[in-house]
Design brief:
The chain is mainly β. The protein has a single domain (25-144), classed as Lipocalin (Beta Barrel). 14% of the residues lie in helices and 46% in strands. It has one helix and eight strands; from the N terminus they run αββββββββ. The chain has one helix spanning 2-22, and strands at residues 27-32, 39-47, 53-60, 87-94, 99-107, 112-121, 126-133, 136-144. It has an eight-stranded antiparallel β-barrel with strand order 1-2-3-4-5-6-7-8. Strand 1 and strand 2 (39-47) form a beta hairpin. The protein is globular and about 40 Å long.
Length: 145
């Protein structure tokens, strides 16, 4: 009888940590291609040295352009760099519960960067990532890995 009680107590102690992890955008997120609806890449969102959120591509899932295509349409120091390992999201600060804003996101397909917002969805299992030009925004929904 002691073992099941111990297991129940241990599980109960882990739940608050799990709940707080689900309330953070930090983690690995599977991106979904808008056109095909298929997984495209994995982006790892992390807390940068300045305390803001950033994200980099850690895995390429859509291999139509090879295992690690270069960012040929990027400008500046990112031009020609491999997309895997590329920081595509940066400068996001907390903007309420489960929301972050004030950052930028770069689209490796066209090399352009946009104003970025993040919002946890579906209890933290999904992440709404919005890229905006002026007041026009487009949201992608990423899935927590």
């Amino acid at each position: 009888m002691r073992l099941p009680l111990f297991a129940l107590l241990a599980a109960g102690l882990c739940l608050p940590g799990l709940a707080s992890a689900q309330q953070s955008a930090v983690g690995r997120w599977k991106t979904i291609d808008d056109a095909t609806g298929k997984p495209k890449s994995v982006v790892e969102v992390y807390q940068a040295r300045d305390g803001k959120l950033a994200g980099k591509v850690v895995e390429i899932l859509d291999l139509k352009d090879g295992p690690n295509p270069a960012c040929d349409k990027c400008t500046g120091s990112n031009r020609g760099k491999p997309i895997k390992g590329l920081v595509i999201l940066w400068g996001l600060s907390a903007d309420g519960a489960g929301k972050w804003a004030g950052g930028r996101v770069m689209d490796p397909e066209n090399g352009k960067d946009y104003k970025a917002r993040l919002e946890l969805l579906d209890g933290g299992r999904k992440l709404g990532m919005s890229g905006c030009i002026a007041f026009l925004c487009r949201q992608q929904v990423w899935l927590r890995e």
